[in-house]
Structures are given as C-alpha cells and as structure tokens.
Description:
- The protein is 19% helix and 36% strand.
- It is of the alpha+beta class.
- It folds into two domains: 3-87, SH3 type barrels (Roll), CATH 2.30.30; 90-118.
- Strands 6-3-2-1-7 form a five-stranded antiparallel beta sheet, with no helix packed on it.
- Strand 2 (30-41) and strand 3 form a beta hairpin.
Amino acid sequence: MNEGMNKLNCSVGDLAITVDSRLPENLGNIVRIVSADGFQEWPGFKGSLFTWNVEIASETGLLHYRFDQVLKTVKSGPVPDRCLRRLTPPKGYLMDEFLEAEQLQIDFHEQDCLEGVE
C-alpha cells in the first residue's frame, strides 16, 4: 500500500522539520513546503512516496542528496512527506498568535545570550 492512503504530514505553505532521513546531514532542517511533486520512488524506501518540493528556510541550511556516491548540496529540492513534520499551526489557527509566540521565543533566546556575556 502506498503512502497516499494515509493523511499527509504537510501542505503547501507549511514550515516543516526534516526527520527520518537516510542521510544524517538532512536531519533537523527547517524547510518551507513550496509545491507538491507527486508520488516518486525514493532510495531506501519501499513503494512510491508522496513528495514535496521544499526550500530551506534558514540562511545556513542545506539539503543533501547522494547520486552515484556523490554528495550534492542544494537550497531546494524534493523531500518525501514521510520525512517531514509540520511546524506551522494547523489551518484555522490564528497565524498572528503563532508569529507573536515565535518572536517571543527569539527575544528570550537573545536575552539568555546577553545574560551569558555578563
């Protein structure tokens, strides 16, 4: 049975974190879901997997792909849905509240960094 029979983890526009990657370099990347890429065969997995086109959401992150034993790094590319977990709130959730909480986390992090300098 292919993955299409299950609920997808993400949708277009979501922020997501990469999980369950065969390449450890890909674990923990924050990506934005750009578009659907459909079902594809994916190395290391059985059957066709639903795949998204994503782009890295940070300045320093990279996606890693291995082709014929050559490691390639890019800022955007395909990722199977099963290797992603949504970070953005579900539809219907007030996005303004989510963004305010995100800024609050950044402010706390900056405050912690400054306290460590003194």
